[in-house]
Every structure is written in C-alpha cells, then in structure tokens.
Amino acid sequence: MAERYRADILVSCLHDRAPDLIPNLKAEVIRRGLKDEVRVIEAGCRGFCSMGPVLLVEPNGIFYIGVQPADVPELVEETLVKGRVVERLTYEEPTTHASIAYYEDIPFYSKQERIVLRHCGLINPQSIDEYIAVGGYQALGKALISMTPEEIIDELKRSGLRGRGGAGFPTGRKWEAGRKAEGETKYVLVNGDEGDPNCFMDRALMEADPHSILEGLIIGAYVVGAHQGYIYIPYEHSGSVKSMRTALEQARDYGLLGADILGSGFEFDAELRLGAHSFVGGESTALMHAVEGKVSEPRPKHIHTTEVGIWGRPSCLNNVKTLSIVPEIISRGADWFGGIGTETSKGTQVFSLAGKINNVGLAEVPMGITIRELVFDVGGGIPKGREFKALQIGGPSGGFLPASLLDMPMDYETLADAGSMMGTGGVVILDDRTCVVDTARYFLDFLRDESCGKCTSCREGIRCMLEILTRITEGRGEVADLDTLETLGHVVKSVSLCGLGKTAPNPVLSTLRYFRDEYMAHIEDKKCPGGVCKALIEYYIIEDLCNGCGACRRKCPEAAISGEKKEVHVIDPALCIKCGICFDVCKFDAVGVR
Amino acid sequence: MATLIIDGQEVHAEEGQTILEVARANGFEIPTLCYHPQLEPYGACRLCIVEVIRSGRSRLETSCTHPAWDGLEVKTRSPAVIEARRVILGLLLSRCPNVPVIQELALEYGITEPPFPAEDPEEKCILCGLCVRTCHELVKADVLNFSQAGVERRVGPPFLEKTRQCIGCGACTIVCPTGAIEIVLQQAGIYKEKPLGPTAAIWVPSLQAVPNVPVIDIDACIRFRQNDRTEGEIADACGVCQMVCEAGAINFDQQDEVVELAVGTVIVATGFQMWDPAQLSQYSYGKSPNIITGMEFEHLSNAGGITSGEILLADGRMPERVAIIHCVGSRDHNAHKYCSRICCMYSLKQAHLVRDKTGADVYEFYMDMRAFGKGYEEFYERVQEEGVAMIRGRGAEVEVLPDGKLRVKGEDANLGRLVYVDVDMVVLSTAIEAPHDANQVAALFGLSRSEDGFFAEAHPKMRPVETNTGGVFLAGTAQGPRDVPDTVAHAGAAASMALALMDQGEVTISPAVAVVDEELCSACKTCISLCPYTAISFIEEDNVARVNEALCKGCGTCVAACPAGAIMARHFTDLQILAQIEGLFRVPA
To answer: Where exactly are the structural domains of chain B?
Structure first.
C-alpha cells in the first residue's frame, strides 16, 4: 500500500439522505490542502438510521450525526485541521443530555456485539485490500489449507450456528447434507432476497461488507463440493448488486475465485443472478425457480433442496448473514461463538428496529437478549416517553408480544412458543397510540399482495381474514368474527405450502392471544383504544389544556375547528374527517382522542 | 415396495407413487381440484390434504405431492383433515360462489352459503393451474401461465393478449374443472353449446364403422399440429392417448402406406357426397344454427351422438315447430337436375322421428312424394296419419327472423297460393352428388361419367354394373343415386360379376389388339394419354410404350395417333385393310 493517510472520514447513509455530503467533503478536503492526508470513504451502513447521515472520523473514533453539507467546512476545520470535536454534531444522550463524541461510548453501539456487522461502516466495501487488511480471507486460507470439509462441518455443528434467513436450520447439518448428497454437480447459493418491509440488514451487509459473504460462500462450496455458486439478488437492490459484482470481480482478480484457489487445488466460481423482488421470492424453492429462470413461486420440499435443488441437482442455499458469520467461526473457533447467546440459539442476531422507538436502525446483539434490553437499552426506549404496548418480531408475518413479556429472552424457541418467530429479525415497536388490530390489518394487507397466490388457503385465507379485520376496524365487527379468524388462521397455517402461508396468520393469531380485549373494544364498545381506527374515534379539545392559540384551527383542512383567540376551541364532529393534524400540531396536548 | 398405513389399513406403494395415487388405488376417497393423473402434481387447491404421521410428528400435507414413503401413517378423514377441507371449500366458494363443481363439493362438507363476500361473484377460475400445466407439459405451446401475485393472480397468455402461439387446441377448456375457459367458435352454422362440427382428434369414423376402432385425425391432433407448426422442434407434444391406452395400441409413427396389389377385377364403390346447400342463398344455410341439413339431423338424432339422440335447438331447447324442405339441390336447374331419390324417404323418417321424440309440429314442403319401393307408400301414409303437415310445393325461401325464428316460404300447389310457416328448426333435404374427386377415379380406371357426374355403366338396362373397362364394375351410388336396399342389390350384382370373371381363371379376349413396334417407337408417350382404357404403359428401362393386351379393346385410337406409325392394330393392319379395300373394288372376272 503506497498511500498513507493520517485520517479517514467514513461516511455512511449514502442513500439519498445527503447526496452532496461526500462531494462536499472531498472538495473541502482538497480546498484545505489535506488531499494527501485525509481520505473520504464511502463506507457502508452504521445502522443508526434515526441519527443519519452519520460519519466516523478515524483513527480517533469521533462519531458525528445528522451531518449536512453545510456542516462540512466547520467539521473539516475543527476536527481535521485543529483536532477538536464539533460538539453540536455529536450524539446527545437523551436522558442526561450529555454529549458523546466517541463512537464506542454511545449506548446504541456499546451494548451491541457485532459479528455479522463487524466491518460495516468501518472499511471501504469496494476495496478487497481493506477487507484483507482487517483479516479477511484468512479463514478461507485456514479452511482450504488446513481443514477437511468434515472438520469444518464439525466446527460449525459445535458452534451451534443456525441459518439467519429466518427458519434457523443448523448450518452445519445443512452443509453436511449438502456434502453427503449424491451428484456430480452441486451448487451453492446465496439468498440476497430480503423481503421484509422494514428490514435492511442483508442489504446493509451486502453493501458494507460483500467480501465476508463471498468468503463464507467459498468455504461453503469447499465443504459441500460445489464448483459453481449463484448469488441471487433482486435487481431493484441496485446497491447490493453493484457491491457484490465489484466484490466478485476483485476476488476473481486476486485468484480467490477460479481454478486452484490459494494453491489448494479447489476450483470454484460464482455469478450473480438477478430477479424481480417479491416477498415470497426469498423462499428457498421460489428463489431456486427464479435462478432457473422460472416464475418464482414455491414448490413442495418433501425432498430437501440440498438433495434436489436447481435443475434437479443438490443445492445448498444460505442467507448472506449466515455466510458472513462462517469465516469468523473458522478464525475464532466454535467455542468462542458457542459462548455467545443461549443454549439453543448461539451467537448474535441483527435486529432491525422500527416503529415507535428512539434508535431506529440495525442493532446486532447476543441471542437471548430480553425484549426490555433490546427496546430500552439498545433501542433507547419509546419516543415522547410513551408507553410500550407491543413488539412485533419476525417480519410482516411475525407475531405481536405484549408488555407482560418484556423480560422474555429472544431466541428461536421462546419466540416460537410465544406465538411469534425470530424470522430475519425485523422488529416493530408499538406504543399506546398504536392500534394492534389496525397494525395486524396492515401486515395482512401486505401479505395479501405478496402471497404468490398458488395455495388456496394462503391466497383466499389472507383475503378473507383481511376482510374481517377491515370490518372490525370500521366498527362492523361481530364477536363471532374472532372465532372465525382463529379457525381460519389455524387452517391457513397448517395447510399452506411455504413459510409465507404458514406464518401469515401470526399477526392475527398473536394479537388475538394477547390483545383480545382490544378486539372486543372495537367490536362491542365500538372504540379504538389506540385512537387509530377512524370510524371508531373522535377528536376533541381538552378544555383545561387549551389556551386558544389557534394552531389547530389554522391547520384544519376541513375548517372543523372554531374558537376565538385565547378562548377554548371546539371541534365540530360533523365536519371532522379525523385526519389527526390538530392532534399533531397542538403543542399543549389539548387535543384528545376518544 | 413401500408399506403405508392409510386409515388403519396396510397398503403397498410402488416406487415414485404419491400418497394420493396409492390411496385412490386402494379405494380411499380424497377430493381434488388441481390434480390430473397426466400432469405433474402442483398442490395449489390444497383440497387433497391428509394427515401424515412420520416419526411421531403429525402434519397436514397435500397427498398429491407427498411421496408414499415406507412407514408413513396417513389419515384421510381425521377431524383435522375434515375441518381444514371445510375451511378451504368455504374459501373456494367465497371466491367462486356460482360454480356448480365448487357448490357441490362444499355441500358435501356441509357448506351451503359462501362464508365470505366474493370479490367478483362471476369468478370461475380457482387458479388450480391445470390449464397452465396442460399447455406447458402436454401441448408444449406454453401459452398460458400465471401472472401477478396474491389475490391479483391471473391465468392467461402473456400480457393477457391474443397470441399466435395458441394453437386453439382447446385442451385447457377440457381440463378446466370449473368451466372458466371457453373456446368461442366463430364459425356460424355450428351448434356452439353442443357442437355438431368439432370433436376430439380421435374418433371412430362412423357409428357403425368396420373395424370399429378409433383413428387419429392428424389435422386436429395436438401432437401432429405442434410437430408441423414448429417444423419438428416440438416433436412429442401431448401424447395423452398413448399414456392412457392400456392396450398400448397408439402408434404415432404409423404412416399412410401405399399398398400395391395385383388384382384381376375392381369394384368401384366410391359413393357420393352431400351437396352443400350454402350454394343457394335462399335457404339461408349458415345464417342460423337451427338450419341444418338432413345429414346433420342424423348426427343430432343418433343415440350415440352429441345430444345422446335428443333433438335440440342450438340453445338446448326442444323445437316446437320444424320444417323439412325436400329437393334442396335436386330437381333444380340451378343445382342438380336429377332426383336424388333417397330424400323423400329419409325426410319422412325424420318427420316421424321429430314427432316421436319432441312432439313438435312438422311441415314437409315437397314437390312430389317419391315413395317408390316396397312398403314405402305405406310408411308415407303412416307419417301422414301421425299428423305431419304435407305442403305440396317447393320450399322457396328460408328467412331468419330477428327473434331467431325461421320463416319458410313456399307455394302450396294444392291451394294454389303462397304460404309461409314460422318454425324453430329447418331441415334441408339436400341432394346427393358425385364425389368431388370422381374425375380422378374415372381417369384411373378409364371410366366415363354420365351427364349427372356419376360413373357411367356400360348399358343402362343390360349391363348396369359393368363399365367399358373390362374387369371394372360399379356398385351403389358411385353409379347413381339409390337408397340402401337398392345399393345392396346393386353391389351384390357387381360382386357376382366380378366373381364370375375371376372364376373363369383364364379370360378369353379378342385377338384384335394394338401392338407397338418397339423398333419404331420414339417414346413420345402420345398414345399413353389417349388410350381410354389405360392399356398402354411406358416402360422406362426399355424406353418404349407397351400395350397391355388384356386391357386393350382394339379401338385403334393409338394406331391412328402414333406419329411414328409404330402402333399396329392386329387383324386391322394397313396391309389387311388395303387388301380388304382392294377385295371390295375387285370386279368379278
């Protein structure tokens, strides 16, 4: 490496939040004559969405949040020329209001244990040299030169690694089945089709650390005896496609793909396969159909795809996160990995935190963390100090868990027993201003469109469940509907072919289990306790709190609010369309919902 | 060999069988909608679910896709299975509330009303994919597929547009369990609902065919059509008949063969064809599906036909009034001048059948009633007694009225005035005529044709089955219109003549035949086309024309025509004729 720099600015949040940030930084660095001293790097995702755009100044680890192009001159002047921290761009601890300048001290990061995301935002993802500099491809060398496939399988089995795609099948066992499967030609596949609406960890990983996935893939190919791999990514995920494509080219240039990898005699190459994005497209057989060029819909798996996969040949499919973990286990050993997490769920899980939570973003924490720790310690709690109502986990077809389960550890089995699932780790937090019936309805609406439509039970079952939920949220529900929902839900679960149908009723069944009273409130009292379902709510002015500022009156699109200045205002229910603007604009919490 | 337990009973399964196949083979009933034995199982309708217990774990699985593994325990009617099927049928009925198949299945599981509101009450498609799989796996046309996802899922050609890839084979309409796909016939004059025209590509040529075996119509057969259309690229489309034929009797490689037989006699019995009434526009044939020919009436009325012998209108109703028009194309200077001879009697029979089967009023428009044979006049009287109205006079015109009724106009010669009748169905007693390719047959056998187009017999009274070509005889309607008894008699005579000839063993022929002097023959082939008896053939290897003495009648045409003077008529040589002339002119001494 010929060039040496005294500092790196690693910029994350590249996706349209501040498109000018990097050009501005680069221009400023040149303007200040720091071109040969400071390097601006387009790094990957740091996972701290609610604070973006964020950037990290290394080597001292100063972490800036909410950086805008206008902040660039000051930032360069202060931090890179004078060596000082720009206080106003640092993270502020919400409770103590203390400013935290260094990345490692921020609770959101300090409480995480990053294995999958170990390099994300810390290296230049488009440089294989940087990946190698942080120890990349060492595990591949170790695996190819000094380990037999059986030893690797044994190591993975001992580590307890389970597939991170959602189902949690033990990776060691899958690779063992792939190795034992009979066939001249075998394939290894990468599942990069992330479909959950609020999840982006796979994308973040592919964009921020593509080589770790590739390294895991080559090790997997060596283990099962495949010489060809396919990396399936929906073409809409252009960042992932670009990143993986560059990584493949670089690896090929470095001899890490092709014939005689690292002098081991092992031959392997991989190529990208792009498909159209769909939620069900990430299902293993649907994905394999897509790789074959067919309609991406699932088929029965009475015989595992490790035996009969693409083109009828043994095919070993792994999620990007699983593959990324493998090199770490090879390097650091099964005992290290097995020491993290719980008895049955080893290692860490990347959770995507969304909804009513302060620290929206990606957080990687040990398996078995309690909901309380995840939401309040890592996630920073609920905004505006509202009350935690439920946590929905496992993507759109995950179940809802109530506040009474806040101290439940999050691992595969416990979550499943509670009526939810780990899935890919998508988490949505609901506060007391959220209606669970409406939220369940929202997820079913998503699933209705995303079901491939093959199985009667899934296609029509979701439609009919949605029909009932819509009726309930519109105040036309009946008590008997709840039994119908339960019957339908159980049949759809037990009868449908693939994971989508088998989990689609979860949002309904779990809310019926934990929030039945909220359903009953909708049906019997015609009330929406969360104050969301428009047909069942009414906005009103709380007289004691209203000081007659007129903000609500001016904003009301239907002129439904009247009142003299400094007098208590009134909402005319006949004109009110329940848009909720008054509720949002009132600075005195004087607008109520009932 | 795998052993399973289905509903407590031990059954055996072959390698590769599914649970559904084994269960059905052993008499267990499992409902299906998306399954077809000739197609890859798909598992879309989910109706065939059964409880599968394997290593202590019980699951609901689709029996159509699940392999019949050794040691499985299967329950086809456990409470969980019944409950799930009931829910699925409720969902299907809510999608397609007006499809009888779904209604019936739902009723079996106690569902009378759709439990949920339908998005489109007219929806018929249950998205079972049978059509898609048929089009892909069997027809190999790949026209139909699924598009869109979830509740928006549809079946159709790409972009739901007409495509030339579709060969219109109709296989999709046949496999569709709910009648969601229909083929629209754009050709008029054909019963749409119960077509008289189109049929499967395999059929028995006629109901009393001998031998009574089916043939493949290669112009309609999907396999042959796909092969032709794609220039052999899609070579093994369909083949369903071969899959289902237990006797293994289907052979696609069988080709038409030309069989050469050396024979001494030939009986030409090439029959007739029906005259096409569309040629005379006043009969409006083709303008209404209820105007049919006598032959089409026979198809309709036959017990083995498409309506199982019921006489129905195109919309499936029974006719209340039927007109039968005689002499359509016969005794008509615009068509055939001759009497087709059989129409009067078949028209009377059809009038009788209509009266008998439907009780409809029947009107016969006739010019003369030619009830010419034994018992025929008596039958005519009987039909009259049955109440058939006889209107003496040609049915002049058929008009299709705006309400679909048909108005038959004509002159009642007995009353001496114009009449019309409004009816539901018109049967045209069309003429019979010589087959369209009679010319080729005539040329092949050296036959001549009379003015009416039928083959001419050697003598109308004395030699009614012989032709001018020795050893070639005529039988039946090839010679002229006749009904079945007359045809049988005529054919018997032809057979006797042929046998008598063959029985001689040796045939005495006239010595006066032509002979070619091969030294002189210039191989111009002029004689070959001139010989009315096809007695001269060209011998390629010797490059000369040669006369078949058994066929030659010694007419002398070739002798006169031969430009090289190479043909001589034996016993009529120039020398002999000149000598005769000389003899004639000799003055007795």
So the answer is: 2-77, 276-430, 438-503, 514-585
Indicate the CATH number of B514-585 among 3.30.70.20, 3.40.1550.10, 2.60.40.1930, 1.10.260.40.
Answer: 3.30.70.20
Residue from B4, B1, B28 nearest B14 by CA: B1
**Cβ contact A459–B151 (<8 Å):** yes
Which residue, among A285, A295, A452, A459, would best test binding to B if mutated, counting the most B CBs under 10 Å from its CB?
A: A459
B94 part of contact set with chain A, CB < 8 Å: yes
Q: What does each of the 594 residues of chain A score in pLDDT, given as a tens digit?
A: 446 888 888 988 876 667 888 889 999 999 988 888 899 998 888 899 888 889 999 888 899 999 988 899 999 999 988 888 999 999 988 778 889 999 889 989 988 999 999 999 889 999 999 999 999 999 999 999 999 999 999 999 999 999 998 889 999 999 999 999 999 899 999 999 988 888 889 999 999 999 999 999 999 999 999 999 999 999 999 999 999 999 999 999 999 999 999 999 999 999 999 988 888 888 999 999 999 988 888 999 888 999 999 999 999 999 999 999 999 999 999 999 999 999 999 999 999 999 999 999 999 999 999 999 999 999 999 988 889 999 999 888 888 999 999 999 999 999 999 988 898 889 999 999 899 999 999 999 999 999 999 999 999 999 999 999 999 999 899 999 999 999 999 999 999 999 899 999 999 999 999 999 999 999 999 989 888 888 888 888 988 888 888 888 888 998 889 888 888 898 998 889 888 889 888 888 888 888
CB–CB of B43 and A278 under 8 A?
A: no
CB contacts < 8 A (A, B) = 105
Spatial distance between the Cα atoms of A280 and A464, rounded to a whole number of angstroms: 20
Q: Do domains B276-430 and B514-585 have the same CATH topology?
A: no
Q: Measure A552 CA to nearest chain B CA, in Å.
A: 40
Q: Are A216 and A205 in contact (CB under 8 A)?
A: no
CATH fold of A128-337 reads: Rossmann fold (3.40.50)
Q: Which CATH class is domain A7-106?
A: alpha beta
For domain A436-525, say whether CATH 2.120.10.90 is its number: no
What DSSP line would sit under B67-130, residue for residue? Answer: B--TT-EEESS-HHHHHHHHHHHHHHHHH-TT-HHHHHHHHHTT--S-SS--S-TT-------H
* CB atoms inside a 10 Å sphere around CB A257: 23
Kindly calculate the radius of gyration of chain A based on its CA atoms and give it in whole angstroms.
26
Residue that is written with structure tokens 């299902």 in the block: A283
Just give the CATH number of A348-431: 3.10.20.600
Structure-block tokens of residue B7 = 């509903």
Using an 8 Å Cβ cutoff, are A230 and A187 in contact?
A: yes
Chain A nearest CA to B236, separation (Å): 21
Query: Are B15 and B83 spatial neighbours (Cβ–Cβ below 8 Å)?
Result: no
Among partner residues B88, B91, B150, which is closest to A449 by beta-carbon distance? Answer: B150
Contacts of A451 in chain B (CB under 8 A): 149-151
For residue A456, which residues of chain B lie inside 8 Å, CB to CB?
A: 44-47, 88, 91-92, 95, 126-127
Domain A538-593 fold is Alpha-Beta Plaits (3.30.70)
* Residue of A464, A500, A463, A505 whose CA lies nearest to A481: A464
Residues of A with CB under 8 A from a CB of B: 278, 280, 295, 297, 299-300, 302-303, 448-457, 459-464, 467, 484, 487-488, 491, 494-497
Identify the architecture of domain B276-430 in CATH.
3-Layer(bba) Sandwich (3.50)
Residue type, B449: R
Q: Show me where the domains of chain A are located.
A: 7-106, 128-337, 348-431, 436-525, 538-593
Kindly indicate whether the domain formed by B2-77 is annotated with CATH number 3.10.20.740. Answer: yes
